[in-house]
Amino acid sequence: MTQGQMTLVAAGQTDVGRRRSHNEDQFLVREDLGLFAVADGAGGHKAGEVAAKLACTSIANYVGATVRKAWDRPDFDRFGLPNDARRLVAAVQKANKDVVEISRTHGKYQGMGTTVVAGLYSPRSHLLHIAHVGDSRAYRLRRGALEQLTQDHSLLQDVLETQPDLDDQVIARFPRSVVTRALGMDQQLRVSVTSHRALPGDRYLLCSDGLCGYVEPTEIEATLRLEESPADVNQLLIDLANAVGGRDNIGVLTCDFEAQGEVKRPGPQTTIPDLDDGDDDAPELMILGIEDAALVVTGGQLQDDLMEQLGLLLKKPPK
Fold first, then answer.
1. CA 41-46-50 angle, 5° bins
2. Could you tell me the pTM of the whole model?
3. First vs last C-alpha separation in the chain
4. Looking at residue 145, what is its pLDDT?
């Protein structure tokens, strides 16, 4: 069975809302690169706007500069990881370093930061890679059903994951807008990334918390179901956010996947490689942090005494 070649049609829009004096949300649409993003800046003296603009510009520059190299590579690396997912994360990492650098060298921008959610489409594999930092979100509408594709890097999400039985009255006193990750906080940044098979008819939404923090998911879903263009859908979503008070800047970006003709099945370059290296003596499970992993790379094989010092847990395969 052949699979239709897909193109994406995307549009973004921001709005200051009804409570803020200036707009610190930014969006990026590069249909030629299959790239789109929404950034929600923060910082005094309009520094948040600078951080968000810089993040979008930096991501676009990195992805654009690596197009030729990306097409020369297979869709998956030897470890089974999508190369374009790694490329998107690298772009966000580069943007973080740029924001940190400007923040540290220009006094008026000190302390600025931004969240970001970005998508990069790989046409050969039909995978859409979503990277995010902070509480800006990505959603997918498929066959009329809305699905949230990202999980917030926020204080409330950390509570849910680490202390789910905490009393609701205690949780209610937590500030709702505190993020635990953002571009500009530190040179070291952990970026979450997922890859999704895109299908004709899919509609994706990237947005800042000015929308998803105040508008009910059912209303967002109903709006995305409408047979309207991405630009018209964006305006309707902004109207919804303003109708409930417009308490924050609103950044929205809607992207539709449309079928165009037919192409052959993805070739061998999209095949996930066999990762079995034949080492039967290797541990079945190793639990360690990324900092510990660096020791493995730089120091060679870890000895038993170093294993104990790091507190690694090993589960040997059955004999």
1. 55
2. 0.83
3. 44
4. 97
Give residues with Cβ within 8 angstroms of 292, minimum separation 6: 310, 312
Give me the residue spans of the domains in the chain.
3-270, 285-315
What tokens were used for 39? 């950034």
Please tell me the predicted confidence (pLDDT) of residue 291. Answer: 52
Its sign, for the CA torsion 277, 281, 285, 287, is negative
CATH assignment of 3-270?
3.60.40.10
Which pair of tokens denotes residue 214?
Answer: 């105040």
d(CA 271, CA 106): 47
Torsion of CA 246, 24, 134, 258, to 10 degrees: 80
Question: Could you count the other beta carbons within 10 Å of the beta carbon of residue 229?
Answer: 13
Write the burial class of residue 288 (CB in 10 Å: 0-12 exposed, 13-18 middle, 19+ buried). Answer: middle
pLDDT, residue 263, reads 39
Q: Is the pLDDT of residue 228 over 80?
A: yes
Q: Residue 39 and residue 60: Cα distance in Å, rounded?
A: 13
From start to end of 190-291, where are the E strands? 192-197, 203-207, 250-263, 285-287
Distance CA 136, CA 142 (A): 20
Contact 193, 85 (CB under 8 A): yes
Phi/psi of residue 307, nearest 5 degrees: -55, -45
C-alpha to C-alpha distances, 271 to 80, 84, 86, 316, nearest whole angstrom: 8, 14, 17, 29
